[in-house]
Design goal:
Layout (H helix, E strand, L loop, with lengths): L6 H11 L5 H6 L5 E8 L3 E2 L3 H10 L3 E5 L5 E2 L4 E8 H35 L4 E4 L8 H10 L3 E2 L8 E3 L1 H4 L5 H5 L2 H7 L5 E5 L2 H9 L4 E5 L3 H14 L4 E5 L7 H6 L4 E4 L10 E7 L2
Parallel strand pairs: 6-7, 6-12, 8-9, 9-10, 10-11, 11-12
Antiparallel strand pairs: 1-5, 1-13, 2-4, 3-5
Helix pairs in contact: 1-3, 3-4, 4-5, 9-10
Length: 283
């Protein structure tokens, strides 16, 4: 089961949209009438944040009667979340729940499609996602990519070691840094050291230094395949990751180069999932 966002996040989402109550429902005088809200897929969708959407409705006073778990892959026209309560509760939670579901499920669906495409070409390839989610949305974004079958490349700067040229510039350049890799690995014995390379020469120098993961950024696909082969010859134990501009349209080509890891941000950006909602009176 995927993790769930904490209550503090759910309460923040609701307070952001309904800080002083629902003026329309109040003025119409329908708040105490009973009703039901139903969420349905309009397209083939990998759904995400159903648990959070249900809790949004519960925080507003409704009672969730059915939900499909995050990560479920559903065809179009499938009902996956239902809740009952007063019109006041249902209308207060309606759009907050829908926004969560549509944005998170959009990310999860894109992630799932990309993974399926990559694995048809390279079953061993692992798809991971970067830190480039929109600020303030990381918890939702990470749940969404996990629901789609990916893993986070880096949750943040505090738990991973990835050395860029922006780091080695302060150390006297790439070769000066590579001379200290053994010491760095000893100091961080529980962590994997990753180093980014921007061209073939850098990638091979990093491989010769015994770096466990070599990340190759924005290299043309035909060149990447050749570099992966040369890295394997130099350092068979090294993992090779490809990053930079990878999306659903080109992920199969990247996977075909034989890289071990595909690093991308593109799943965070795109059309939200199309989800239908009905709110109906209930006696």
């Amino acid at each position: 089961m995927l993790y769930c966002l904490p209550d503090s996040e759910i309460e923040r989402f609701v307070e952001e949209d309904v800080p002083y109550g629902d003026l329309t429902t109040s003025l119409l005088g329908i708040g105490e009438q009973r009703g039901e809200i139903l969420f349905t897929t309009r397209d083939e969708t990998t759904i995400c944040c159903t648990e959070e959407a249900g809790r949004v409705l519960q925080k507003c006073g409704a009672r969730t009667s059915f939900l499909s778990p995050s990560g479920s892959h559903l065809q179009a026209g499938v009902e996956f979340l239902k809740a009952e309560g007063s019109a006041r509760a249902l209308h207060a939670g309606w759009k907050v729940a829908l926004n969560l579901l549509e944005y998170a499920s959009g990310i999860a669906t894109r992630t799932s499609r990309i993974i399926q495409t990559a694995k048809r070409v390279n079953p061993a390839a692992v798809v991971v996602t970067t830190r480039k989610s929109f600020p303030g949305t990381k918890k939702v974004a990470i749940k969404a990519i996990t629901a789609g079958g990916a893993q986070p490349h880096r949750l943040g700067l505090s738990e991973t070691i990835l050395v860029f040229k922006q780091h080695t510039a302060f150390l006297g350049g790439l070769d000066a840094f590579l001379a200290t890799v053994g010491e760095l690995r000893a100091r961080a014995a529980e962590k994997v050291v990753m180093v980014e390379a921007e061209n073939e020469d850098e990638a091979l120098r990093v491989a010769r230094a015994g770096v466990p993961v070599i990340q190759i950024d924005k290299m043309p696909i035909p060149d990447l395949g050749q570099v992966v082969k040369r890295i394997r010859e130099i350092n068979p134990a090294a993992k090779v990751s490809a990053a930079g501009g990878i999306n659903e349209a080109n992920v199969a080509e990247y996977a075909a180069t034989g890289v071990d890891i595909i690093v991308l941000s593109s799943v965070y950006f795109g059309r939200p999932a199309d989800i239908g909602v009905r709110i109906v009176p209930k006696n």
